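A quick aside before the break. I want you to see a complete sequence-to-structure record at least once, exactly as it would be stored in a machine-readable document. Don't worry about memorizing anything.
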Amino acid sequence: MPFRSAPLNDATPRSLGYRWPAEWERHAATWVSWPRNPDTWPGNFEVVPGRFAELVRTIAKFEPVQILAGGERVMADAQKHVGNHPNVKLLDIETNDAWCRDHGPMFLVREKGADPICRNGPPDASHKWGLTPFREPALVDWEYNAWGGKYPPFDKDNAVPRQIASLCHRRRFVPGIILEGGSVEGNGRGTILTTESCLLNPNRNAGLSRSETETYLADYLGATKVLWLPRGELAGDDTDGHIDQLARFVNPTTIVAAWEDDPADVNHEPLHMNFEHLSEMTDQDGNRFTIIRLPLPKPKFYGEHRLPACYCNFYIANDCIIVPQFDDAADAVAIKILQELCPDRAVIGVPSLDLVWGLGSFHCLTQQEPAC
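That is the input. The structure line, written in tokens, reads:
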């Protein structure tokens, strides 16, 4: 559906020429929240800081890492595991949990040559989106309620974007609706991919329609086209269907989609349906995407609980892609697929089986800050 342009007095990001850049665009830093809640990894928390530190050190080879490690105990634990790494900074900002993708801000860029008030929204396709950041950095501070109120308290998590905006002197836009970073995926050109099961779930924004949700995505993230997958199921997932477990852009025209070959597996049918829908979708210019299957590992369990182990939860940092590894034969397959799609980046596997017991992996734990 066509999007309305924001009135000039609305001062939304879109009306001011901002957009949400793609993850593969150059980063200034990666933001993470140090793991602090044993209830997130019940019975296995003691190994989590070490595994998390391994992720941090891997990212820090390619770009700075900003760690939210508020409180004396958490700060000491982060210092113990990371040490005095020259590319890592510890910040005294408290959180409730570690999932920075969802409670952190979504950073915006403003294009070179954007007018102070952009009457027609972001640059059009002929501008090729510029991809050159412009002064006055900004972020979006969505509301956060721990995936529909599942895991209180979440007050400190919800306050994180405001504190980062203050710390970094960034303009802060506050839409006033609940949205987690892992629930949307963008190609940097105006197309956003999401799921009906998450964004339209009444445990987030009861009464908010699809059309109204799309208007928020247009006004605050610069979306010109929103694509909706109807099936958000992934065995073990607790997010109601975050897209970053199901399908990811690796460039403006290519999507990798989670895939399960075994028809007896509970993930088989919904992932096949998603693949069919993706194959029929078009981008902001009306062109079909290239859809690549990214196989799941064999089912992984902690006790009787199946884990949402999925290679789609990779993270794209400067010059690299960090891929979760699950002690599975498909680990190497996932790395090979992503390396072939992204030959200009180092594709690095890092162990994630202990981390995914918390029901998320590398993308869930990270939030990129674009260079500006």
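Two observations worth writing down. The chain has a mean pLDDT of 92. The domain at 10-370 is CATH 3.75.10.10 (L-arginine/glycine Amidinotransferase; Chain A). We'll return to this after the break.
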